[in-house]
């Protein structure tokens, strides 16, 4: 590499300044506009100290910076933070093990290529600076320690490994109550559970988001609206949110417990019973329908191994479309999916056994969403970037779905659950979303529930016992998994200990993780 950048020295220095400004605004969730003042300050320092052109230049043409690897790791962190807002190491580990093929994030792949190129240019310029400026050769040997110590990605890896040496690794395990049903009603109700991708209850704040949540507010008037559902660690992506709400436990990744680290998972949380297991044993016919691929992030494996009779994703549903080309990068649009869900409910209603239908939308998938054609007809043109348009689309389609089932008399003796799968990841409304406290959506109606609002400090693990009691089942001490029924006086873990304690315990323990991933002796994975 040449050690001379005669005409381009200031361009190179400015490029480094922009990279530093971008990194700072990403880490601290600031507008990228603030990268410009950082750049100005950087250039002033470069001018004052003649960076890259010292008065007494000692060139080391073969010098390699010690901090190249730490800088590269920072670029990986910045890519993840820019994509998802908060870097969830558990999600990264789980997706690498469960599979990330057949996802709709083609745009992020392009962004990743841009990040890679940008990072390589930055590393090249930094190497030039170290080779021509003796002061930077000395400074960067101290800088490398800073880069390693404060990289959130490496900090997260350190915390993940802490469970190996934790003195008490079973605090959560001791509070886990294996899900059971002690008694059931004479006429068990059907269950319709709709997961709305990233459609968190925070959007109900009209001062920040206008009327985008209005249709869901209207649905909430039918029954019980639960407020205060926080997001604890290892529940912040779709599969994790589903497992938390159906199994009463966070999805702590298999990690070192997985025998074949580089092989895809062959089973998902085989060591615990979930809602599907409990209902299947009591004669329920269970169906899952989602517009995205079942192969992504272990969703298909989870449902097939936990009591579901029919599991349908993009692979099975796309051939049923009237217009085969009406697909987005993830799969089916939600108007198509919910039409098929109505058809499935009609079929299930004709059968003698009770049923459970679980469906998952994707209209509001970040960063911009995939609003359906019917939403465009209802709301007007979509600018391609406004996630609030997509949130409103999800609410309108959900309300339309419920009202259609009601008109056809398909909601008799049925509990309906409308919920977000997790809090939204980084999207075009990120600054407004992160400006205040956030909560998940959870609405239940039907089966005799009295309309009201219940506000409690809780999380998605509390949904399992709450759903069971709303269906009329009796569970031991109003508890299942780590959750407590929000319809009962039983205290939740968050009410007792707070979210910080629960998250800290999850980072430093292994006993509950072992329960999730290791079937009891003699059992085969479900």
TrEMBL record:
The chain crosses the membrane at residues 12-28, 34-51, 63-80, 109-130, 142-159. InterPro entries: Alkaline_phosphatase_core_sf, OpgB/LTA_synthase_biosynth, Sulfatase_N. Keywords: Cell membrane, Membrane, Transmembrane, Transmembrane helix. Its main location: membrane. It is found in: Cell membrane. It is a multi-pass membrane protein. Residues 189-472 form the Sulfatase N-terminal domain. Pfam families: Sulfatase (PF00884). This is Sulfatase N-terminal domain-containing protein. The lineage of its organism: Bacteria, Pseudomonadati, Pseudomonadota, Gammaproteobacteria, Oceanospirillales.
């Amino acid at each position: 590499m040449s050690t001379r950048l005669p005409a381009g020295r200031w361009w190179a220095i400015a490029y480094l300044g922009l990279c530093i400004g971008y990194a700072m605004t990403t880490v601290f969730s600031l507008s990228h506009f603030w990268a410009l003042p950082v750049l100005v300050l950087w250039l002033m320092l470069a001018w004052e100290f003649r960076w890259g052109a010292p008065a007494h230049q000692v060139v080391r043409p073969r010098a390699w910076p010690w901090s190249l690897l730490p800088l590269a790791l920072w670029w990986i962190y910045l890519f993840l933070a820019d994509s998802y807002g908060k870097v969830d190491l558990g999600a990264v580990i789980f997706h690498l093990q469960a599979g990330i093929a057949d996802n709709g994030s083609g745009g992020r792949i392009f962004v990743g290529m841009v990040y890679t190129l940008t990072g390589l240019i930055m590393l090249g310029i930094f190497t030039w600076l170290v080779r021509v400026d003796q002061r930077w050769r000395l400074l960067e040997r101290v800088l490398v320690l800073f880069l390693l110590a404060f990289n959130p990605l490496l900090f997260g890896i350190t915390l993940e490994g802490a469970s190996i040496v934790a003195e008490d690794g079973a605090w959560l395990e001791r509070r886990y109550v294996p899900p059971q049903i002690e008694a059931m009603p004479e006429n068990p109700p059907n269950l319709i559970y709709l997961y709305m991708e990233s459609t968190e209850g925070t959007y109900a704040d009209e001062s920040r988001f206008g009327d985008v949540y209005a249709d869901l507010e209207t649905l909430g008037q039918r029954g019980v609206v639960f407020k205060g559902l926080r997001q604890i660690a290892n529940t912040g992506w779709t599969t994790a949110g589903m497992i938390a709400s159906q199994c009463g436990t966070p999805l702590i990744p298999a990690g070192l417990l997985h025998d074949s680290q580089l092989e895809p998972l062959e089973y998902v949380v085989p060591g615990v019973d979930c809602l599907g297991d409990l209902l299947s044993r009591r004669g329920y016919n269970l169906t899952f329908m989602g517009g995205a691929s079942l192969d992504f992030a272990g969703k298909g494996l989870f449902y097939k191994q936990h009591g579901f009779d029919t599991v349908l994703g993009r692979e099975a549903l796309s051939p049923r479309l009237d217009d085969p080309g009406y697909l987005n990068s993830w799969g089916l649009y939600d108007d198509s999916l919910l039409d098929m869900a109505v058809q499935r409910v009609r079929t299930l209603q004709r059968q003698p056994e009770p049923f459970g239908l679980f469906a998952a939308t994707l209209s509001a998938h970040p960063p911009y969403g995939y609003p359906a054609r019917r939403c465009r007809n209802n709301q007007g043109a979509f600018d391609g970037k406004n996630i609030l348009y997509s949130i409103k689309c999800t609410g309108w389609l959900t309300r339309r779905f419920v009202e259609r089932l009601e008109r056809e008399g398909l909601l008799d003796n049925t509990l309906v659950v409308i919920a977000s799968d997790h809090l939204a990841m980084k999207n075009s409304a990120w600054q407004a979303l992160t400006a205040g406290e956030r909560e998940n959506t959870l609405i239940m109606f039907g089966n005799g529930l009295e309309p009201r609002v219940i506000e409690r400090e809780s999380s998605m693990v509390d949904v399992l016992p709450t759903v069971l009691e709303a269906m009329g089942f009796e569970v031991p001490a109003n508890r299942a998994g780590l959750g407590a029924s929000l319809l009962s006086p039983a205290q939740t873990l968050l009410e007792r200990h707070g979210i910080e304690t629960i998250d800290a315990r999850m980072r430093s323990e292994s006993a509950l993780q072992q329960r999730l991933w290791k079937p009891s002796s003699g059992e085969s994975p479900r």
